[in-house]
Amino acid sequence: MKLPKISYFLHDNGACGIYRLANPMTAIEKSKKAQVMWYEKGDDADKIALCLEADLMVIPRPYKENWINAFKQLQNGGKKIVIDFDDDMFDINPTNPAYSGFGTKMVTVEVGGKKYTPWIDGENINFKENQKKLDICKRACEMADMITVTTPLLADVYKQFNNNVVDLPNCLDMQLWERLPIENDGIRLIWAGGGSHFLDWLLLKDVLPVIMAKYDNVKFIMFGSTFPTMLDSLPKDRVEHHEWVHTRAYPYKMAILNPDIALIPLQSNHFNSCKSTIKWVEMSALGVPCVTSFVSPYVDYLPENAAAFAENETDAWIEAISALIENSILMSKISGEAERYVRVEYDINSQYIKWFDAYEPLLKEAA
């Protein structure tokens, strides 16, 4: 029997590229339900041309005019187009570095009681060009045969442009996420994130000094971006910073860091509410209990007793972290419940079928 053909554009090798495209597509191909091809920037014309022969093409975040022209030609040839998003492109927080490429308004941001204007049109941002990108993105959404996103809340954002929107949750290849037999000397707290999480990180500014003064066996690990002045009040001999690694190496690096408790602070705003719970999924896969902000998406999608929730107030965060540090039974209960859940619900080796089931009607139309 002739297999349908799916191709995808690997825009980058970051979490979006791997979790949203490479992992599910690899699993689909292993299942022998479809032939899968992919291409990326810099590939030769022959490889790209081969991928364009597929029945269905998955494209992440299109915002250039050439995609509109390509979509027209492909759809005229009977091909189906799926666009994938993992964030709300139309409501990026001004403290997010991505705002430079998609922001359209000059805004004032308050940090630590001081007000800043981070983006000045014509100096470090071009509002007119960014608006063009968003307009192209809207047109692409309207043209697509399907849009896929990470959560139901994010689906609501894109349904204003297209009626056929499907939420496909971020999943992991659980075969790669295994805890190592390492014994820690004390308690290792970890925060992992990029520069876009600066305001989220601020939630811990007055929390960590108290925790580390209260418990002399606690070490703090910062994985990814760092905000140096924020660490000045912490004992330097009990702080580690580790740079990002390639996404393929990320599960192994996290296992080597061997955290005991993960901290996942998140400000309450629309952009954040549309995010997935991927940090919690990653930590839970390793059996690491998490303290998360009591905001969306965590309050919406996490099962009961699978995390320690904290209101976004200093005292609440101190109390939640302290409760885990002082109660190993509670740590085990939370981590056990979370790990059991994510290994069933978020393993791409079983969940890939959601992707294929979403694509199948389009593949039949293209046949």
Please name the defining characteristics of this protein.
367 residues; alpha/beta; Rossmann fold; 6-stranded parallel sheet; 15 helices; globular
Plain-language structure description:
- This protein is of the alpha/beta class.
- It has two domains: 5-94 and 126-171 and 348-366, Glycogen Phosphorylase B (Rossmann fold, 3-Layer(aba) Sandwich), CATH 3.40.50.2000; 187-345, 3-Layer(aba) Sandwich (Rossmann fold), CATH 3.40.50.2000.
- The chain is 40% helix and 17% strand.
- It contains 15 helices and 14 strands.
- It has a six-stranded parallel sheet, sandwiched between helices. A six-stranded parallel sheet has the order 11-10-9-12-13-14, sandwiched between helices. Strands 5-6 form a two-stranded antiparallel ribbon.
- Helix 1 crosses helix 15 (348-366) and helix 11 packs across helix 14.
- The longest helix has 19 residues, at 348-366.
- The chain starts with a strand and ends with a helix.
- The mean pLDDT is 94.
Q: What is the arithmetic mean of pLDDT?
A: 94
Which parts are unreliable, with pLDDT below 50 for 5 consecutive residues or more?
none
How much is the radius of gyration in Å? 22 Å
Summarize the main sheet: 6 strands, parallel
Please identify the top-level CATH class of the largest domain.
Alpha Beta
User: What is the succession of H and E elements?
Assistant: EHEHEHEHEEHEHEEHHEEHEHHEHEHHH
Quaternary: single chain
Characterize the overall form: globular
Taken together, the total number of domains comes to 2
Number of helices: 15
